[in-house]
Predict the 3D structure of the following.
Amino acid sequence: MSSFLDEVLEAHGGIDRWKSFSEVTATIVTGGSLWAMKGLVQDPAPRTMTVSLHEERASVMPFGNPDWRTRFEPGRVAIETTKGELVKELKDPRRSFDGHTIDSPWNPLQRAYFNGYALWTYLTTPFLAALPGFGTTEIEPWREGAQTWRGLRVRFPANIESHCNVQDFYFGEDGLLRRHDYHVDIAGGFAAAQYVYDHVTADGIVLPSRRLAYRRNADMRADLSRVLVSIDVGSVRFS
């Protein structure tokens, strides 16, 4: 690992502590304008998100019905009952987004797929960069007002499903994440800039408790006139 990545991991709690856990559970509340663009209804009810730390697996509940949950892993997404009974599934879900644009409608399984890979990415950042197959390069810093944030470009391996293969992360002087840039390949590849706030410490791991994602302009600046996705994270527990 690069010395910069080492510094970032240490600021977020340290790789040794991270390796001592296998799973994180958190309460999430989601909002933003993207859901209406996708023909979906988003309510403000809190949901429980569970993510595996060292392999790409995720689940959120409730989803749709009170006793339903999602089950996401690379190459498959499913909706099942809390007793584990299959309701419906979609294999090779990435292919179902072929030809989509930012306002193409999503069905519930497509929404579950997006939720699964996105929250896995967010709740394992920045430690995912230390997983096998990932590559990192320090890039030009980003100037945000009077602050300068160091940049880290992360290349995702082919076996990990996320927004896109190359994503940029920016960190403040304290080494903590401040901004996350990516393209949403399953929605026409539009550019996004996600700002993170209000870091909390849970079981020794530091992570942001609020995320706001915007469209990113050609000059890399975020279009702050409309929040595409907001995520509030609480009750975080590593185990």
